[in-house]
């Protein structure tokens, strides 16, 4: 993998990142709605199976149609996303393909095959199979989509918390040593539970919003009320679960990606008894002068809360940006090396690898690799600014996500109270709030991914491989061309999906 050691044109890096981000953002417009609607339509068909009321059958089939439209679009963007690993990130694919490819292969062979099989039964088997088998097919379709998400998130979690692997200098590849460590890493479990529960929130918000639109138009009143009951209940439970799993995710980030946490909090200078920032003035368009500031201006914070979240100890030590660059003493008493030391040890590892590959004193160079390989990626770092992610995006995206999460809890709880205790058709203002949940849920969902991916920059693999060493040796012009080509294609696909969705919603259920 000699290309890994070559300098890459910055334009190639920037356009490759932009293209991948574009594809991922569009793909994520479809995936969470698929996961969320799977739960809603499963509950509704279960109600039909238990009560045998034709009303629930009609409701289930209505939401299944919307699920199917969205499912098809998600498949198309997902396939393109996986191909980009080979086209735009070939150095990355070579370096860790043995590990990263395994969960993606399982997702394609097992999970996607499962959901694709049962989705056909769900759509076309209403009058051809027994009601019990059809109900099972509906739930298995949702389960297949969820299992598919599991393997994708295992792959993503490994990039942020590489585990269960070892580097082979003879093949120049990282090779898997424990599949279970990769598949069941604590980072993967937390990422999966938080991502899936947040997807349920979005599906619930969509269900509530469509139902509120019907109420405002005074159409399909009974369907709308029943759907609000199901959607708001799913949304409330999912919002509470997302908050809990988000807390666990923050703890994992603090342990394995302290720079991401520092960026999320705009924490420049850490220490013990750290407060959690509620709000502060962080210019959204400019990287702050973190080396010459102790904290952001106009800061309002909750005392000791960050220490509790990050260390589960009210007096725990949380490093800031400056501490991570300069080095600091960890909770277990060991010293975390400074950035300069990591850079030096990373360069030692790179040089030892070159010498080993050239046949020079292999035994001695292997010892250097064993000692310093964990800092291999730092050998490509030229300046401290490169290891600090763009703080404003992380800071504000995190607060938008958390703030909207709290709003969802309040709105779903109010919706449930009103729909069960009052005549919800009289509360037009609440119906308008319900419609607004759709864009707000998407904003919260995308903000979560902005934090996850911007926060780990500059790493494609945490501490192991920076972005500029991971890209393919392509011309920036060619990538820019495909970027705009994909932009047009994905926008057209999104326009088509929204158009079909709106027509189906206007048409309403088939009575």
UniProtKB/TrEMBL annotation:
Keywords: Cell inner membrane, Cell membrane, Electron transport, Heme, Iron, Membrane, Metal-binding, Transmembrane, Transmembrane helix, Transport. It is a multi-pass membrane protein. The keyword ATP-binding does not apply. One of its GO terms (biological process) is aerobic electron transport chain. It is found in: Cell inner membrane. It comes from the Bacteria. This is Cytochrome c oxidase subunit II.
